[in-house]
Design a protein that fits this description.
Hydrogenase nickel incorporation protein HypB; metal-binding; alpha/beta; zinc; hydrolase; single chain
C-alpha cells in the first residue's frame, strides 16, 4: 500500500512539474489558458460552440480537445474557423500536462502562439480525475448539468473544490425535471463557498453573457499580472 501511495505522489509531482512548464509557456506567449472539466454529457462542447460563436471575432482563440477515442467534438469546434488540436487519451480518463504539452507542440506547428489571447482545454468527461491533474491552466472551470442531480457536488467534491468557476448547465430543463436549482448551488457552496457560479443554457443562450464576461475578465487579469511582473509578453 505504501508503494502504491508513493507511486501516486511521484506521478502527481511529475505532472505538476510539466504543468508548471506549460504555464511558463503560456505566460511567455501572453496566452490565458482555461481548463474545462465535467462529467460526460454536461455540455462542454455545446458551451464551447456558443462561446466561440460569441468571442471568436473578438479574441484570438485556440482549443485543445481531449477525448478518449474520437475527434467528433474537435470536428464540431473546427467549424468556427479556429485551430483545434485533438488529443485521444485511449484508456486514460483525463488529460495530463504531458499530453497538453504534446498538443502545444502541434499548435506551434500551425501558428505562433503569441498571436493568441485564449487557449481553451476541453478535458475528458469525468467527475474526478481531471481535477487532480493540472495541465498548466490559469483557471479551472467545472460544469454540472441539472440532469446530473443535486447531490453530485457532495459525492464528487474534488472537482468542485478545485474549480475557479462553476457553470450549472442545461437550466432550460429545470421546468421539466424534479430538480432544485437552489439546492444544487447550496451543495456547491458547501464544498467551495467563494466560487463564482453561473447558471446557463447553451441551447437557449440564457445566462451566457455573465460567462463571457468572466472569460474577458480572466484575460484582462492575466495580462495585468504579466505587465506587473515585467513579462516579455507585456
Amino acid at each position: 500500500m505504501h508503494q502504491v501511495l508513493d507511486m501516486g505522489i511521484n506521478l502527481l509531482h511529475a505532472n505538476q512539474h510539466q504543468a508548471d512548464h506549460n504555464r511558463d509557456h503560456f505566460d511567455g506567449w501572453g496566452v490565458t489558458c482555461l481548463n474545462l472539466m465535467s462529467g460526460p454529457g454536461a455540455g462542454k462542447t455545446s458551451l464551447l460552440e456558443k462561446t466561440l460563436a460569441a468571442l471568436s471575432n473578438q479574441l484570438r482563440i485556440a482549443v485543445i480537445e481531449g477525448d478518449m477515442t474520437t475527434q467528433l467534438d474537435a470536428e464540431r469546434l473546427r467549424r468556427y474557423g479556429i485551430p483545434v488540436i485533438a488529443i485521444n487519451t485511449g484508456r486514460a480518463c483525463h488529460l495530463d500536462a504531458a499530453m497538453v504539452a504534446g498538443g502545444l507542440h502541434q499548435l506551434e506547428s500551425l501558428l505562433d502562439p503569441r498571436q493568441l489571447d485564449l487557449l481553451l482545454v476541453e478535458n475528458v468527461g469525468n467527475l474526478v480525475c481531471p481535477a487532480e491533474f493540472e495541465v498548466g491552466e490559469h483557471a479551472k472551470v467545472a460544469l454540472l448539468s441539472v440532469t446530473e442531480g443535486e447531490d453530485k457536488p457532495l459525492k464528487y467534491p474534488i472537482m468542485f473544490r478545485e474549480a475557479d468557476c462553476l457553470l450549472i448547465t442545461k437550466v432550460d430543463l429545470v421546468s421539466v425535471l424534479d430538480i432544485d436549482l437552489e439546492r444544487i448551488q447550496a451543495n456547491i457552496r458547501e464544498i467551495n463557498p467563494s466560487v463564482p457560479i453561473f447558471c446557463l443554457s447553451a441551447k437557449t443562450g440564457a445566462g451566457l453573457d455573465p460567462w463571457l464576461s468572466w472569460i474577458r475578465a480572466q484575460i484582462q487579469a492575466h495580462s495585468s499580472r504579466l505587465a506587473k511582473a515585467g513579462s516579455p509578453a507585456s
